[in-house]
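Dear colleagues,

I hope this message finds you well. In preparation for our joint manuscript, I am sending the PaaX family transcriptional regulator C-terminal domain-containing protein (Nocardioides caricicola) sequence together with its predicted structure, so that both groups work from identical material. I would be grateful if you could confirm receipt.
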Amino acid sequence: MQARSALFDVYGDHLRSRGSEAPVAAVVRMLDPVGIAAPAVRTAISRMVMQGWLEPVQLAGGRGYRTSERANRRLDEAGNRIYRREAPDWDGHWHLAFVSAPQSRAARARLRAGLTFLGYAELSDGVWVSPYPRAELASMVEREGATVRVARADRFDPEPTGAWDLDGLRASYDGWLQAAGDLVDQHFSAHDDEDEAAFAARFHLVHEWRKFLFADPGLPDDLLPDDWPGHEAAQLFAREANRLKPGTDRFVARCLGA
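The corresponding structure tokens are as follows:
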């Protein structure tokens, strides 16, 4: 697990509802049970400040950091998708993004990863498709020095679901259903403190589940088979996340000195 990714999980899943800020020492305490050492946390924080995700702030508990408005938009969008909140109704139209390629290879890689995270798939060179419009599209493309034109497609024949690897996604959801129980149980055997164990178990559960944001665009049910395992996997995730939340909240409050 990378420290930067872990920090996004901490701020999105635990601090967003607590003012989106925390002292550095509290963040270090939170990430210790999941194996992220203090030097890695501080290095990742510095990088996220330079990238515009975090902002320094002086708090009662010492120097800390809060998420920027840009980060809050990303975390809220990710949270809606992780917990399947406010699932939009599909109007039957597809949204197309015609994206120019940045000059830098690194920028092209970031742009491709960002478009995939938002739920787009590449139909052909520079042409990306999504079942829903994505609010972050324009700002993300602009940050990478590219341009985008958007259009709405009234129909495709056949539907462009083949732009995503649905067979691979099905296999991943099947694997999740088999492994999620062990993922949770192993942390209760590794930590003596029950609240710390609940935090570590839920943290890894959310971290692994969040990876589906890079593979699953949230296709409408109308386009998915009746036996789609993503539905059962989402129910299992929500059930386990809710079960672990009380202990997790107590551990976070302890780390924050509340």
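For the figure legend, we might mention the following. The CA atoms of residues 99 and 197 lie 44 Å apart. The longest helix spans residues 229-256.

With kind regards,
E.M.
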